[in-house]
Write a structure and sequence with these properties.
Radius of gyration: 15 Å
CATH superfamily: Alpha/Beta hydrolase fold, catalytic domain
Number of domains: 1
Structural class: alpha/beta
Distance between the termini: 35 Å
Strand content: 15-25%
Shape: globular
Number of strands: 7
CATH topology: Rossmann fold
Number of helices: 7
Order of helices and strands: EHEHEHEHHEEEHH
Length: 172
């Protein structure tokens, strides 16, 4: 069965933002969806978030959908796991420790990321990234995207759902 694990970001909850909406749309398409509540969202710790993700046992039929800080978790998870997964959707991702949130995010960015290991575990990858966060460009993720174009197959259903949501919100 196709599975999706949707992971919220820093200072968020599973019921927040667009997560439940995407989860519902995926369920309507026959996916089994999990939106776990990550621990200590105000002062998150990588090891606690990693334990939560590992407990969900992502497998070859799973896509991981991350928002914001959850993308750093996904990259670290992919470095460590031996399991290949179906795909990854990264929304509003970045890959460096920002000065204004150093204390809150430091455990997620220690030792950087091994992109080659991460990419090797993914069948499909979609980056829905903001081009600028706090005025900074996403240089490392842009390089990852450029260097891995053969691995970047769009998950068309999610893009369509995302666009439907954006259009729906703009009409209200």
């Amino acid at each position: 069965m196709k599975r999706a694990i949707i992971i919220h970001g820093w200072q968020e909850k599973p019921q927040g933002q667009w997560l439940p909406w995407v989860g519902k749309k995926l369920e309507e398409k026959g996916w089994k969806v999990q939106i776990p509540e990550m621990p200590n969202t105000n002062l998150p710790k990588m090891n606690e978030w990693m334990d939560t993700l590992v407990s969900l046992s992502p497998d070859k039929n799973t896509i991981l959908i991350g928002h914001s800080l959850a993308n750093a978790l996904i990259l670290k998870y992919l470095e460590k796991t031996k399991t290949k997964i179906k795909g990854v959707v990264m929304v509003a991702a970045w890959d460096w420790l920002m000065d204004d949130v150093k204390e809150e995010h430091k455990t997620f960015f220690e030792n950087g990321f091994d992109y080659k290991k991460s990419i090797a575990k993914i069948h499909k990858l979609l980056l829905l990234i903001q081009r600028q966060i706090h005025g900074l460009r996403l240089k490392k993720l842009e390089k990852l995207q450029t260097n891995s174009m053969q691995n970047l197959l769009l998950l068309k259903m999610l893009v369509t759902l995302w666009r439907e949501r954006v259009i729906k919100n703009s009409l209200n």
